[in-house]
Amino acid sequence: MGRGIEIRDAHFPGRAPIDAYGDGGFRFADMSHRGSLLCLPSGIHGWDVTEESTLDVALFKRVLDEARDIEVLLVGTGQDIRRLPPELKIRLRDARIISDPMSTGAAVRTYNVMLAESRAVAAALIAV
């Protein structure tokens, strides 16, 4: 008898530095994940976003839901830096979150440093 494939939302229930990135995914906490990630106070979540995605407010709902525990959101926008849409910047600012778009590599490095400093940081990382 064959087993069916169970599809679950990817979620690591803790905070962990990102050990490596590239080839369409990330390594952290002795695990690997293909695709993009949201690194939030509630843990690390799979994020269904690519470099071609429009960065609208709906994609950041989980970030806004946890806003009280986030001071800085690093947005790794892929290989290149992309501006955040004005509506998204306003929603994040209204939630008292400082948003900082940068390449995914720079976002990973900055996230790891801020996490090590126990800062209230979150990251939205588009896989490269």
Automatic annotation (TrEMBL):
Pfam families: DUF498 (PF04430). InterPro entries: MTH938-like_sf (IPR036748), NDUFAF3/AAMDC (IPR007523). It comes from the Bacteria. This is Mth938-like domain-containing protein. It comes from Hoeflea prorocentri. SUPFAM superfamilies: MTH938-like.
